[in-house]
Amino acid sequence: MKIFGWVFAIAGAVVLSGCSELMSLHSFVGDEDSAADPGLAGTWKSSDDEALIIVQQAGAIYSITYTEKKETAKFQGRLIRAGDAEILDVVEESDDAFQIPAHLMVRVWPEGGVLRFTFLDSKWLRALAAQQLASQPSGERTLITAPADAVRSFVLRYGADPKAFEGNPSVLVRQ
Fold first, then answer.
1. Alpha-carbon distance 64 to 43, whole Å?
2. What is the dihedral of CA 26, 27, 32, 35, to 10 degrees?
3. DSSP assignment, residue 60?
4. What are 58-67's contacts with CB under 8 Å, separation 24+?
5. Is the N or the C terminus of the chain less surrounded, counting Cβ atoms within 10 Å?
6. What is the CA angle 88-94-99, rounded to 5?
7. Could you list the residue range(s) of the whole structural domain that residue 152 is in?
8. Closest by alpha carbon to 42, among 108, 118, 120?
């Protein structure tokens, strides 16, 4: 019964968090690691005008509202610095008792009126996570099940590496 419950929990986390191919069961940013960057706060619009993202800052915690077409999702983010990289630990806020919150790694580059971001989920980073951390693969996705301290060390070590993401970052413009 315990194995079934664990498999169900992992499957739920992977299915319900469709944004990234690498996620963590545990937060990788603790109170002692939280950083703040006032450049993240604001109202941002995608270059194709399809998505609107509102980021509000309260100390070291970011409330993020994402709206695209008629769909809205709310997230909470905490920022950590890995070298010169800023990485948000983003988790969806939900009252659904059957949804397990999965923490996504999002690298951000706030630069005045532009915010670039990308998910840290490259094949290279997923392979490292599978080698170095307790994790569970599911198709192309990987759920890291390792404790928070291990995930934090992993993000601090590899999060700033350009190989941690694939393609070009998405671009948002301040409104």
1. 10
2. 170
3. T
4. 59/34, 60/31, 60/34, 60/35, 60/36, 61/34, 62/88, 64/90
5. N
6. 100
7. 2-174
8. 108
Distances (CA, A) of 69 to 53, 73, 154: 12, 11, 35
Please list the residues that pair with 88 across neighbouring strands: 79, 106
Residue type for position 161: D
Q: What is the pLDDT of residues 108-156, one digit of tens each?
A: 999 989 999 999 999 999 999 999 999 999 888 999 999 999 999 999 9
Dihedrals phi, psi of 154, to nearest 5 degrees = -60, -50
Plot region of 61 (φ>0 → left; ψ -120 to 50 → alpha; else → beta):
beta
Block residue for tokens 């996570």: 129
User: What is the count of structural domains for the chain?
Assistant: 1
Amino acid in position 118: T
Q: What is the mean pLDDT of the chain?
A: 89
Q: Which amino acid is at 170?
A: S
Compute CA distances 21 → 3, 11, 103, 143, whole Å: 23, 13, 11, 8
pLDDT (tens digit per residue) in 72-89: 999 999 999 999 999 999
